[in-house]
C-alpha cells in the first residue's frame, strides 16, 4: 500500500509532467539493491469497525540508507504525489532521523526535493482551526549538519517555502531545466501582492542559477543524479575523514605545450581559464561549480595526481576578472566548502581588483569584498596561488593568506601592484603634463619608464615573487604541492571566527 504512493491518478499526473516518482528517483540514484528504507509504513491509516486496516496513505517522504558508488549515503526524498509534497502531509520524525543518522554515522545526505513549504494548504485550518507561531526545529540539525557532512540538494520540481530553504541549505544544489522551480512562495502568493507570474518566471533556473541560489543546472533528472554522485566523489563522507585519494590516471610530469602561449601578450585580450585548469589537473577531472553566476571567477573541484582539490581561477572575460559582489559571495562559499572538507586549494590568479563604480557599490561590493577576503584568510587548508596575469589591490591580495608560508608560482605574464599603471600615470603627473610643450612625448617617456618597472622579473629580484616559472611546468609543480599539502590536512570540524 505504501508503494502506491499518492494513488494511481496522482502518480499518473506526476509522470505526465515528465517527472519520475520518488521511488523511481531513489532507484535511479543509488547502487542497485542497496536502499534500506526507514519508516516505509509511516503515514495515515484508517480501520474498519472490526479494527482491521481499511485504507492507508503513506507520508510524503521516503527515507533510507543506501550506497552511491559504494559509499554509504543517506537519502531523503519528497513524494509530490501525496499532497504536492507539502510538509503538512509528512512526518517530521522522518526528516529528523535522516539528518541525525547522516551526521552521527558520518554519511553524506542527498535530498530529492519536490514539494512545498511547512504550512501546507490553507484547507488544513478547517481540521485544526487556529494559526501557529512558525518554528522549524529541524533547522538546527541542518545547520549543524552542514559543518559535519556533505549535503546535496536536487530540486526536481516546484520547491517553495521550506522546500526552497532545503535547496539553499546545502553544499551543492542542482535544478533541472524546465522541470524545477525554487521560490519563497509560489505564483498564487505573488499574484496576491500584484505580480502575475508563472512558476518559471518566478523561480526558474535562469533566475536561481544566475543569482547563486543553486549551484548547477542540468537537462534531465538522470543528469542531476550523476552530478550529485560526481560532486560527492571529491569529498570525504564527513569532516572526520580526509578526502579520498584515487589511483592516478594521468602522468604527474605532463607538460602541456598550450600553456606557453595561452595568455595573450598584449595583457588585455581575455583567455579561457578553464583551458589552464584542464591542462594542469588530471585529465577529465575538473568539475565546475556555479558556472552561471559570479562569472568573474571560475570555481570547482578537480584531482591532481589523484588528490582532490578545490579550484579557483580568475576569468578575464567578465570585467577583466574584477571581483563583483556576486564574485565575492562565490569566493566565500567555495573557500568555506574547501576548508570544511579539507580540500587544498589551487588558485589561478587573474584579478583586476574589486569592481569599481556606482552599480557595484550599490550591490555592496565593499562589505562582500572584505568578507571574501576573510574567508581566504580564515581558510584552514593549504592554498597554492599561481599568478597568471593581473593581481591588483585588495582583491588581488586575497589570493592566499600571506601571513602563512607562501606556496606561490608566477607566470612571466604576471602583472601586479596596488593599482594599474594605466590611468595612474596621468593622475600622478598631471602638473608636469599640463606644463609641458609636448604632452605626448612626455607621456610616452613616462609609460616606457613605468612599464619597465612592471617586469615581473624585477619583482622576483626583490623576492616579492618567490618563483617565476615556465607555464608548462605548472602541472608537475602542482603535483608536488598536493603531496606536501596532504601532510598538512587534519580531519575534524572546522570553526570560523566572525567576519566583517
From TrEMBL:
GO terms for molecular function: propionyl-CoA carboxylase activity; transferase activity. Residues 1-247 form the CoA carboxyltransferase N-terminal domain. InterPro entries: AccD/PCCB, AcCoA_carboxyl_beta, ClpP/crotonase-like_dom_sf, COA_CT_C, COA_CT_N. Keywords: Transferase. Residues 251-500 form the CoA carboxyltransferase C-terminal domain. Gene3D superfamilies: 2-enoyl-CoA Hydratase, Chain A, domain 1. Pfam families: Carboxyl_trans (PF01039). PANTHER family: PROPIONYL-COA CARBOXYLASE BETA CHAIN, PROPIONYL-COA CARBOXYLASE BETA CHAIN, MITOCHONDRIAL. This is Methylmalonyl-CoA carboxyltransferase. It comes from Henriciella algicola.
Amino acid at each position: 500500500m505504501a508503494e502506491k504512493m499518492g494513488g494511481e491518478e496522482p502518480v499518473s499526473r506526476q509522470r505526465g509532467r515528465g517527472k519520475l516518482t520518488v521511488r523511481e528517483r531513489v532507484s535511479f540514484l543509488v547502487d542497485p539493491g542497496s536502499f534500506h528504507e526507514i519508516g516505509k509504513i509511516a503515514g495515515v491509516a484508517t480501520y474498519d469497525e472490526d479494527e482491521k486496516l481499511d485504507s492507508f496513505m503513506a507520508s510524503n517522504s521516503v527515507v533510507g540508507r543506501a550506497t552511491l558508488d559504494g559509499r554509504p549515503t543517506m537519502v531523503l526524498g519528497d513524494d509530490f504525489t501525496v499532497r504536492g509534497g507539502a510538509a503538512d502531509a509528512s512526518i517530521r520524525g522522518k526528516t529528523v532521523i535522516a539528518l541525525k543518522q547522516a551526521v552521527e554515522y558520518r554519511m553524506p545526505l542527498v535530498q530529492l526535493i519536490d514539494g512545498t513549504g511547512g504550512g501546507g494548504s490553507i484547507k488544513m485550518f478547517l481540521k485544526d482551526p487556529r494559526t501557529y507561531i512558525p518554528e522549524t526545529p529541524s533547522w538546527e540539525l541542518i545547520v549543524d549538519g552542514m559543518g559535519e557532512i556533505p549535503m546535496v540538494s536536487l530540486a526536481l520540481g516546484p520547491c517553495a517555502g521550506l522546500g526552497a530553504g532545503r535547496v539553499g541549505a546545502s553544499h551543492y544544489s542542482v535544478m533541472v531545466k524546465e522541470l524545477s522551480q525554487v521560490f519563497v512562495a509560489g505564483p498564487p502568493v505573488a499574484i496576491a501582492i500584484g505580480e502575475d507570474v508563472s512558476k518559471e518566471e518566478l523561480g526558474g533556473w535562469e533566475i536561481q542559477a544566475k543569482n547563486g541560489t543553486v549551484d548547477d543546472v542540468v537537462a534531465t533528472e538522470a543528469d542531476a543524479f550523476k552530478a550529485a554522485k560526481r560532486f560527492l566523489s571529491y569529498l570525504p563522507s564527513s569532516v572526520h575523514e580526509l578526502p579520498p585519494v584515487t589511483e592516478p590516471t594521468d602522468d604527474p610530469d605532463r607538460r602541456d605545450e598550450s600553456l606557453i602561449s595561452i595568455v595573450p601578450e598584449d595583457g588585455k585580450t581575455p583567455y579561457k581559464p578553464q583551458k589552464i585548469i584542464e591542462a594542469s589537473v588530471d585529465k577529465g577531472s575538473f568539475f565546475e561549480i556555479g558556472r552561471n553566476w559570479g562569472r568573474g571567477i571560475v570555481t570547482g573541484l578537480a584531482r591532481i595526481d589523484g588528490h582532490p582539490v578545490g579550484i579557483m581561477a580568475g576569468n578575464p572575460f567578465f570585467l577583466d576578472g574584477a571581483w563583483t559582489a556576486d564574485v565575492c559571495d562565490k569566493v566565500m562559499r567555495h573557500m568555506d566548502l574547501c576548508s570544511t572538507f579539507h580540500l587544498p586549494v589551487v588558485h589561478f590568479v587573474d584579478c583586476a581588483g574589486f569592481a569599481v563604480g556606482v552599480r557595484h557599490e550599490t550591490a555592496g561590493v565593499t562589505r562582500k569584498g572584505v568578507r571574501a577576503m576573510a574567508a581566504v584568510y580564515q581558510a584552514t587548508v593549504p592554498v597554492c596561488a599561481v599568478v597568471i596575469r593581473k593581481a591588483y589591490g585588495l582583491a588581488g591580495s586575497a589570493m592566499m593568506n600571506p601571513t602563512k608560508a607562501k606556496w606561490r608560482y608566477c607566470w612571466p605574464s604576471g602583472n601586479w601592484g596596488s593599482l594599474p599603471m594605466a590611468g595612474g600615470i596621468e593622475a600622478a603627473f598631471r602638473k608636469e603634463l599640463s606644463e609641458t610643450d609636448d604632452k605626448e612625448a612626455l607621456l610616452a617617456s613616462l609609460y616606457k619608464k613605468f612599464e619597465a618597472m612592471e617586469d615581473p622579473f624585477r619583482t622576483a629580484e626583490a623576492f616579492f615573487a618567490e618563483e617565476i616559472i615556465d607555464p608548462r611546468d605548472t602541472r608537475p609543480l602542482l603535483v608536488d604541492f598536493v603531496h606536501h599539502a596532504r601532510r598538512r590536512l587534519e580531519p575534524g570540524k572546522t570553526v570560523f571566527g566572525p567576519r566583517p
